[in-house]
Amino acid sequence: MTAFTVAIDGPAAAGKGTVSKAVAAHFGFAHLDTGLLYRAVGRKVLDGADPLAAAGALVPADLAGGGLRTPEVAQKASEVAADAGVRRALVAFQRGFARRCGGAVLDGRDIGTVICPDAEVKLFVTASPEVRAARRYRELLEGGHAVTPEEVLADQLARDARDRGRADAPLVQAPDAVRIDTSDMSIDAAVARAVAEIASRRGDG
Ligand code: C5P
Q1: What's the CA-to-centroid distance between 104 and ligand 1, angstroms?
Q2: Nearest alpha-carbon partner for 35 in 3, 2, 1, 76
Q3: 34 lines ligand 1 (CB under 6 A)
Q4: From the CA atom positions of the chain, what is the Rg in Å?
Q5: pLDDT at 177 over 90
Q6: CB within 10 Å: which end of the chain, N or C, has fewer?
């Protein structure tokens, strides 16, 4: 078995997590949600840790615990993610994961541009800010978080601006990435589109 890397980037709540999980299951690839790395560092910083020390000492168990999917952790994650030292500390783990035998899907902001510029497939999954905020609002409500739609949109705009505006590894579509805009697409249609793209790059039937 050889390595085969699928890089999936895009802004928050565009559907890239769902698409990533579904294509990993479809092809039997391993999946890494790289946002969890930054969220785990953010969580430790909220608990008083130094960002660089937290990033350097991250272990897989830190990604498994609950409590990483809160708006507070998401904001702190995007703050620590602007620190070049934090990003550097997380590169080797992500690249190792990407080149494991049997195929890997990594989703994040800079996978196709910085972490895996030679990925066999690059997808950029996006949607309009309004559609993304509405999706995230529903998810948070279902998760029992007391939020208003206005708060969710404001948080998202702040995080988008920070992710797109940072000097190191900003969120941007790689020139060779295939863009999938899920604003008016069902999840099933977005997954089908991603599966078709990967299958054609692999040379499947
Ligand atoms: O994808 P998720 O919303 O969990 O990511 C949380 C934050 O982590 C993002 O807002 C972004 O600032 C950061 N991130 C990043 N690079 C990645 C993945 C996430 O900077 N590859």
Answers
A1: 18
A2: 76
A3: yes
A4: 16
A5: yes
A6: C
Nearest CA to ligand 1 atom 11: 78
159 CB under 6 A from ligand 1? yes
Does 174 score more than 80 pLDDT?
yes
On whether the pTM is more than 0.90, the answer is yes
Q: Provide the mean pLDDT of the chain.
A: 95
Regarding the beta carbon of 78 and ligand 1, being less than 6 Å apart is answered: yes
Query: Is-contact 154 146, C-beta < 8 A?
Result: no
Q: Is the dihedral of CA 84, 90, 91, 94 positive or negative?
A: negative
Does the CA dihedral 194-196-199-200 come out positive or negative?
negative
pLDDT at 205: 58
3-state secondary structure the chain: CCCCEEEEECCCCCCHHHHHHHHHHHHCCEEEECHHHHHHHHHHHHCCCCHHHHHHCCCHHHHHCCCCCCHHHHHHHHHHCCCHHHHHHHHHHHHHHHCCCCCEEEEECCHHHHHCCCCCEEEEEECCHHHHHHHHHHHHHHCCCCCCHHHHHHHHHHHHHHHHHCCCCCCCCCCCCEEEECCCCCHHHHHHHHHHHHHHHHCCC
Q: In sequence order, what are the beta bridge partners of 179?
A: 124
Report yes or no: 98 and 86 within 8 Å, Cβ to Cβ.
no
Pair type for strands 121-126 and 104-108: unpaired
The residues facing 95 across adjacent strands are: none
